[in-house]
Amino acid sequence: YSSVSSFIDGYSIVYKNDEGYNEVGVIDNNGKEIIDISDKYTSLWFSNGGEFRFWKEDEAGFIDEEGNEFIEEDWTRITPFINGYASFGEKIDEEEWKYEWGLIDEDGEVIIKSKEETPIYMNNGLYIFKDDDEFGYKNIEGDKEIKAKYDNALPFYGKGAFVKKGNHWDY
Length: 171
Description:
Order of helices and strands: EEEEEEEEEEEEEEEEEE
Mean pLDDT: 91
Low-confidence stretches: none
Structural class: mainly beta
Number of helices: 0
């Protein structure tokens, strides 16, 4: 292999690079290929719960330990599943690498259409959104729960979240 990742949950992402020809796959901690090393994917990476994220040409999605693709769409970015949801990004500007982000559930059903400026991570029923360089919080229906008025914001954990206004962080 020309490159290997650390083992996570007994698996490693492995790459072969031979004079510009790239192949990627997954091995277990015994060295057995569980996802064949090939040029089918441009990249593979870990997700959560035993699946992996994949990218190929203009698609991204998820693949299980047996190599079965179970969510695949014309996305260019995909985050791991967190709290039962993953965020997907669609490129809207080739020159500036800008994306619009949406949200899917574990069945691949679109819960929030791609429209947000940042990836969507649901925590305690809310996610951070950005509007005119300020941050606020929306619920899963996309309704604004806390208007965008902060310079920065972190996800809700427990009963609150850290937000920044000016030079001060508050909880």
